[in-house]
Amino acid sequence: MTKSFKKGDKVSWDTSQGETHGKVVKKQTSETYIKSHKVAASKDDPQYIVQSDKSGKKAAHKPTELRKKS
């Protein structure tokens, strides 16, 4: 079963600096760009746009990379 998140969900994910915390901004189901990075999302392979609590920066992650926090 694929993980599903909704806007506002608190999540964590791993980075090269360690675990990062943030929130889901939106579910992305079409190709887009964050800064100059291409996000190859689709309806069959959605990604989630998340915003870091610490830096405020946005990034796209596949559902399998995110963990829901309480």
From TrEMBL:
Q: Which residues cross the membrane?
A: none
Regions annotated as coiled coil: none
Show the Gene3D superfamilies listed in the entry.
2.30.30.1060
Give residue spans, biased composition: Basic and acidic residues.
Answer: 1-12
Instruction: Enumerate the residue ranges of region (Disordered).
Output: 1-25, 37-70
* Pfam families referenced in this protein's UniProt entry, alphabetically: Hva1_TUDOR (PF11160)
Which InterPro entries does the record match to this protein?
Answer: Hva1_TUDOR
Q: Which residues form the Hypervirulence associated protein TUDOR domain?
A: 8-66
Superkingdom is Bacteria
Question: Which protein, by its recorded name, is this?
Answer: Hypervirulence associated protein TUDOR domain-containing protein
